[in-house]
Amino acid sequence: MKREQWGSRSGFILSAVGSAIGLGNIWRFPYMAYDNGGGAFLIPYFFALLTAGIPILILEFGIGHKMKGSAPLTFASLNKRWEWLGWWQLAISFVISVYYVVIIGWAFNYIWFSLSQSWGADTIAFFTENFLGLTGSPFDFDGIRAPIVFTVLIVWTINFIVLYSGVKKGIEVSNKIFMPILIIILLILLIRSVTLPGASKGLELLFKPDFSRILDAGVWVAAYGQIFFSLSIAFGIMICYSSYLPDKSDIVNNAFITGFLNCGFSLLSGITVFGIIGFMMHQSGGELPAKLSGVFLAFATLPEAVNQLPFMQTFVGVLFFISIVCAGMSSEISISETVVSGIMDKFNLSRKKVVTGYCLTAGLLSLIFTTGSGLLILDIVDHFINNFNIVFAGLIEVILLGWFFNLNSVKDHIHPISDFNVGAWWNFCIKILTPIVLGITAVQNFIGDIKTPYGDYSFAALAGLGWGVWVSAIVLSLILSLIKWKKPLKIDH
Amino acid sequence: MPEEKEVILTFGAILMMMFGISLTWGGASVCIAIAIKKRNI
Question: pLDDT tens digits for A91-127?
Fold first, then answer.
């Protein structure tokens, strides 16, 4: 079976950028910057982009393109004993795809609510009580919520159609639709935001530099973490996407474009979000809104801001939630494709069979997040996926590839086909700098969660949904790596 | 409704905002220009 290919370079770049730009750019980056020195945060942030984000993107684009395979196939081709790492990255993608889809479903619901601002005056109560029917414990499900199931079904249907249509006709075409819409909406919202009374107060909060924070090691770890989570690295996506590039395709410049556009989008999102926060402070006499990040920023604080707008409330509300849907869908498609591609490679199955089986299985599992305890389960699973699975998978990836693999063979592959070359700095970043920073992050996360268990959850909830998912993902990966390949492996020497 | 006095952005905030925008969007523009010059995009 011949491997599918992108139809154009712009199609690949838009898809890679679409994967990288997700909900974290909108609701995580602005708060991270605000909380870690304001404008001064940009210095460690860009340093992290240039020394970890873009170098790892080049590495993942390089090995995916060289070995022409999904993450398991690529790692197995580099070294048979590394195949489990590819499966671990796929397991991470699978879990994320199951709950990410529910957040996009919520955004669909909120497009409808925006038409009449049916969230009312108390937007937090509406979100948690009326909409989610939030219970007090992760194991107190209290039934599924029909409106959420309905929109989750819509998201799975779109995902199914895109994946079923293949790389060129499905993924590439969908990103050529979602990305321009997202950028246009963001620019409209940006203009609306910065022209609101009090917007400058919010921008001052976001960008006023506190350079003393640069000496704080925690700020650097936060910056590296933000870059790492934001660029879709270490969960197999970029390896999978680059495997669909034609033989003579640029690698290095594509990685730079993807990295810069992703961070540029984060900045514009930050300006939009904090412009609106400044407006809310202006309306309330200087009081900072209670929720400045995460799902509560999107589904409680911003609806409250929409309530306070002098005009165009419906227009702004609808556009904002459409932007959430576009950013989320392009990421969800990439996460799902990573899993689909890995299963197709390993078991030599057709795309149609794998996509159908995948969407049915993951779709059924996502129902658990539509129950009354869905947000609580999502919160635990997401915390452990980000802090343990992605960080540890990334750390192992850079250690294996940096120290137990000839990095220069990747350079030899990418230099003749790229617009420009990478120097010795790239080897240094992959071998030394990134493992050190990721190692510190991993140890900090591990000790932090052992000392102070996450949230106010019970031991059973954290053990079952957090630590349990982590260990299960690794065990499953090891088992999958023991299964024989249905087609012979192309081993890299 | 209580209203707060309008805040004018400080020089430091404007500088950092311009730094961020020019590095990301400027960097992307330069890379895209190289891509267009070297081959079709």
Answer: 999 999 999 999 999 999 999 999 999 999 999 999 9
3-state percent breakdown (helix, strand, coil) of chain A, nearest 5: 80, 0, 20
Beta bridge partners of A144: A371
pLDDT tens per residue, range A209-253? 999 999 998 899 899 989 988 999 998 999 999 999 999 999 999
Exposure class string for A100-139: b at 16+ Cβ within 10 A, else e:
bbbbbbbbbbbbebbeebebeeebbebbbeebbbbbeebe
Q: Kindly report whether the global pTM for this prediction surpasses the value 0.90.
A: yes
Residue B2 has pLDDT above 60, yes or no: no
d(CA A77, CA A205): 49
A60, two tokens: 């993942």
Chain A partners within 8 Å of B8 (Cβ) = 200
From B33's Cα to the closest Cα of chain A, the distance in A is: 10
Q: In angstroms, what CA-CA distances link A351 with A77, A355, A356, A358, A380?
A: 21, 6, 8, 10, 32
B8 at A interface, C-beta within 8 A: yes
Closest CA to A162 of A329, A14, A362: A329
**Chain B contact for A193, CB < 8 A?**
no
Number of Cβ within a 10 Å radius of residue A212 = 10
Nearest residue in chain B measured CA to CA from A198: B6
Q: Is B16 on the interface with A (CB under 8 A)?
A: yes
Q: Which residue type occupies A74? A: T
Question: What residues 11-30 of chain A have any CB closer than 8 A to a CB of chain B?
Answer: 13
CB A60 within 8 A of CB A235: no
For A14, other C-beta atoms within 10 Å of its C-beta total 24
Quick: pLDDT tens for B7-25: 678 999 999 999 999 999 9
The amino acid that residue A316 corresponds to is V
Side-chain-side CA neighbours of A183 within 13 Å: the count stands at 13
Contacts of A42 in chain B (CB under 8 A): 16, 19-20
Other C-beta atoms lying within 10 Å of the C-beta of residue A7: 15
Instruction: Report the chain A residue with the minimal C-alpha distance to residue B6.
Output: A198
Asked if B33 reaches chain A (Cβ–Cβ under 8 Å), the answer is: no
- Taking the CA of residue A208 and the nearest CA in chain B, the distance in Å comes to 4
Across the interface, whether the CB atoms of A46 and B23 are under 8 A apart is answered yes
